[in-house]
Amino acid sequence: MTHPDPIALFSAWLAAAGEHGIDQPEAMTLATATPLGLPSARIVLLRGADDEGFRFYSNRHSRKGDELRSNPNAALLFHWKQLGRQVRVEGAVSELADAESDTYFASRPLESRLGAWASDQSRPLESRKQLLDRVDAARRRFADGDVPRPSNWGGYLLAPNAIEFWRHADHRLHDRRLFTRSANGGWSSQLLAP
């Protein structure tokens, strides 16, 4: 873990997880918090990582969307047990531009695009039937197959200020390296005790 670029190291670890046959190596825990600091976490899928940060998409009126709007700081956790590796990422979150969200939304399967219109994510439902009726209504509304992105659905970018790589070692003598964003935009790193 002596690589000087944490994004390149993360990309290598993600690729290794995929090559190892791990199901959905891009699955990550996204932790958010209310303005009062009350935390919540859920699994979402990473949809890109580069020097700008880590991208994911969601309904912006969901609980996570509400929390990110009021407290735009979050943490991500990737855990690949079969490889004995995990990566923790912390940073500020911003909304992606509409054009980037539109492009990603258009790449999703039809049923997922219809589901985005049907689901008032995180809000109470009277029944499962109510949700399925909404999907049917969306299917009729967009019968031509052209399903635009709902205005309340879009992407997020977590710009990391800290990335920690953890590798399992026997006797709990794990290997940990923390990368911290410096004032000039580069990265510094240090080993951490397990």
Structure description:
The structure is a single chain. Strand 7 (153-167) and strand 8 (175-181) form a beta hairpin. This protein is elongated. The chain has helices at residues 6-19, 63-70, 98-107, 110-118, 128-141, and strands at 27-33, 39-45, 49-50, 53-59, 73-80, 85-95, 153-167, 175-181, 187-192. It is α+β, with helices and mostly antiparallel strands. It has a single domain (6-108, 152-192), classed as Electron Transport, Fmn-binding Protein, Chain A (Pnp Oxidase, Chain A), CATH 2.30.110.10. Strands 1, 2, 3, 4, 5, 6, 7, 8 and 9 form a nine-stranded antiparallel sheet that branches. Helix content is 28%, strand content 36%.
What descriptors fit this protein?
28% helix, Pnp Oxidase, Chain A, 9 strands, single chain, alpha+beta, nine-stranded antiparallel β-sheet, 194 residues
